[in-house]
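Supplementary Note 3. Input sequence used for the single-chain structure prediction.
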Amino acid sequence: MSKNRVIAIYLPQFHPTEINNKIWGKGFTEWTNVALAKPQFKGHYQPQIPSELGFYDLRLDEVRIEQAKLAKQYGIEGFCYWHYWFGDGKKALEMPFQRLLETKEPDFPFCLAWANHSWSTKTWNNVSKNSKEQEFLKQEYLGKEDYIKHFNYVLPAFKDQRYICVDGKPLFAIFNPKEIPEDELKKIIDLWNRLARENGLKGIHFVARVEKIAKLTDSDIKERIKGSSKDFYQKYLDMGFDAIWPESMRKAEILSKGFFKMFIKRVLYHSLKIRLIDKYNYKDIINNFYNDYEKEENVYPMIIPRWDKTPRQGKIATIYQGSSPKIFKKHVKDALELVKSKKSEHQIIFLQAWNEWGEGNYIEPDVKFGRGYLEALKEALDEENKE
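The predicted structure, written as discrete structure tokens, is reproduced below.
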């Protein structure tokens, strides 16, 4: 098995739920968007259709078992499930996680990443498809009692022998720590670490997923791109996070397209409300993806096989054009180079994603490439281990 710890982000969305039925229609899953996606320009690969796993339903245990077998075969250590807790016990898409605990299947390592964002009518669809964007699940931070309730909900997972640990502590990532008021964030980290120790654990290995450039409207965007990443991320480590998961896509987009073109895009959108397809060359993206900060012991780089939000956004989608298994393999090898000098426990690489089909961000087999991306990942891992 590879010494490198590739952990694949897993979207537990592909099954009907009461809230999705209510907002988007009975039986809705993102397969609806995926199947209806249309090419936006000549040579555009859409719709992107799954092959051997098909349009699966995650209510079936055998589907999740087959996914785990496939991931393990190609060198992935485990799945990191997006976890939705909105406060006061409100959850979403929790069924696959609960089945995982109840049935002990699949017998495959896993961890959780708290997707701490509100849901609105544009969560799975572009808002233009609705009369008006409406928020219907609000992400709230309700204080100590609710944080304890949240901890107790995930505690059985932390104690599961399959749960992915780092330095003996269960790994728990937070999607958007910037969204949480700093005093509340510090409170959550301190409280959960104390509760973990009281329940026989060494603590929690908290990972902050952070975008250095969150919006095109950042006034100091040039300085933030060129400035020290270490200084920018240090505040999260100071708050109690054990590691950083850099989300480098926006930075790579700006460097790929250039500041002038991005400025024009900003003017069109904010002054004239004009949005167009936001297209990039995948090779340019990965060539601008990393920096030396990601060689730090407590930084876990990310790899992306491809990106195409046409199923969700249609004519205003962000698209990374020209991805292929061969170029993805180069991307993986770049990430492996960043982690090779770290302790084996910290040679973590987040693969985003296993199955985000609505974002065109997946590594599962499809009708065009088959298992090509999985094979590219395995080849890169095997070659690294021979060196």
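The longest helix spans residues 182-198. The domain at 5-386 is CATH 3.20.20.80 (TIM Barrel).
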